[in-house]
């Protein structure tokens, strides 16, 4: 399996917040944003592995600013690290100010996806080819988190 750079699986998704996506105060319902996060990460994982992967974990999810009905929302997902059968993916959710094109961060999260083989069991993923210092930093931080989780049992 050839190693792949994070840029090869980088995923961008754009959504428009409609009334059915909102709560009683007219801001986006957290569960809808979480579903978009899951889809965006899932596509990045599929692009890296070339097959379907499942969500094992979503953590560090923070909603930093409300998203309103009528807002254009941009989601981006990038692989932070690839391990044996799992991948850590970082995701950002931004409000795109359509008049100016400027973007502001509304939410972010990290997800772990596991690649499954034909038998439905975890199977190896291609290595992640770190090309930049940022790629190396993100991969090292993800490895540290994974080690901490494993030593915590
Ligand atoms: C995720 C899942 C496939 C892992 O299966 P498993 O038999 O526990 O697999 P293993 O213990 O061999 O672990 C496989 C990999 O997953 C990782 N993993 C498993 N559970 C994890 C968790 N909760 N958080 C982070 N990583 C996890 C392991 O660290 C391992 O990574 P590595 O191969 O890179 O070292 C299984 O728990 C599952 O099917 N969960 C339900 C997934 C689902 O339905 N998601 C929602 C819909 S997509």
What is the topological layout?
Elements: H1 6-9, E1 11-16, H2 30-49, E2 53-63, E3 72-82, E4 86-96, E5 103-115, H3 133-152
Antiparallel strand pairs: 1-3, 2-5, 3-4, 4-5
Bound molecules: coenzyme A (COA).
Residues 54-57, 83-86, 112, 114, 122 line the site of coenzyme A.
Q: What features would you describe in this structure?
A:
This protein is of the alpha+beta class. It has a single domain, classed as Hotdog Thioesterase (Thiol Ester Dehydrase, Chain A, Roll). 29% of the residues lie in helices and 34% in strands. The chain is built from 3 helices and 5 strands, in the order αβαββββα. It has a 5-stranded antiparallel beta sheet with strand order 1-3-4-5-2. The radius of gyration is 16 Å and the shape is globular. The site of coenzyme A has 11 residues, from β2 and β5.
């Amino acid at each position: 399996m050839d190693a792949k750079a994070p840029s090869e699986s980088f995923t961008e998704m754009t959504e428009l917040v409609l009334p059915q996506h909102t709560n009683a105060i007219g801001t986006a319902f957290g569960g809808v944003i979480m579903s978009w996060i899951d889809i965006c990460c899932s596509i990045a994982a599929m692009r890296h592995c070339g097959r379907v992967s499942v969500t094992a974990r979503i953590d560090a999810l923070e909603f930093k600013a409300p998203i309103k009905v009528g807002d254009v929302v941009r989601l981006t997902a990038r692989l932070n690290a690839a391990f044996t059968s799992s991948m850590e993916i970082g995701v950002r959710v931004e409000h795109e100010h359509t008049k100016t094109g400027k973007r502001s961060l509304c939410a972010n999260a990290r997800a772990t996806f596991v690649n499954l083989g034909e038998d439905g069991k975890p199977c190896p993923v291609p290595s992640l080819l770190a090309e930049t210092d940022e790629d190396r930093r993100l991969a090292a931080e993800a490895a540290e988190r994974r080690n901490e989780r494993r030593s915590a049992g």
